[in-house]
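Lesson 9: reading folded outputs for more than one chain in a single document. The general rule is that every protein is listed as its sequence immediately followed by its structure tokens, and records are never interleaved. Here is the first one.
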Amino acid sequence: QVQLVESGGGSVQAGGSLRLSCAASIYTYKGYCMGWFRRARGKEREGVAALDSDGGTRYADSVKGRFTISQDNAKNTLYLQMNNLKPEDTAMYYCAAVPRSYCGSWYDPRLFPAWRWGQGTQVTVSS
């Protein structure tokens, strides 16, 4: 069973950085695509970044060049390094996992029910 626990959210000023962490159950990485998603108030949940089990990464256009997804297999932890944060990055951020066969369409909201989700961590960026 997949278990995911996020941490690392907080409040920062625009231009600042945060690193989110997601502690995952030991078997999560095997055959899974790992992802970060976010949901801003009044908006739909959207994909931020995804990491396939073969190491391939994918990013939403809005965060390319600013965010980096990575994992530490020894620590069973997924990360999202967020640099040059903007007020529009303010949202609840969720770690999630899905069988890797879905990774090619990781951003597709129609597939969101297939993902297993963490409880989320809030990121607030002030101008």
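And here is the second record, again sequence then tokens.
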Amino acid sequence: VQLQASGGGLVQPGGSLRLSCSASGSYFRFNIMGWYRQAPGNQRELVATLTSGLTTNYADSVKGRFTVSRDDAKNTIDLQMNSLKPEDTAVYYCTLCVAGNCWWGQGTQVTVSS
């Protein structure tokens, strides 16, 4: 399985960005896809996950601002990020997990700064 993330960039506080991740290869259709992020000096942390049964899980810090969605026909997962804050600055990684085995994308940088 390979994951390719895109959509990062530089945005001003209060702005929006949309990240997209495309999965290729063979994997079980019952899975969890999601996004994590890692800021300099910090551990990688959960941003949002979305199961194949459409159950979502968001970090408290992004609830109400970020929305995760997936398109299983296209094997993609997106993260719509609104009302961005400087503390959202990080490298964002998409992930696909099946029965505890996880694959990771290469990461895309999101910088929120004026």
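What the second record shows: Residues 49 and 80 are 13 Å apart (CA to CA).
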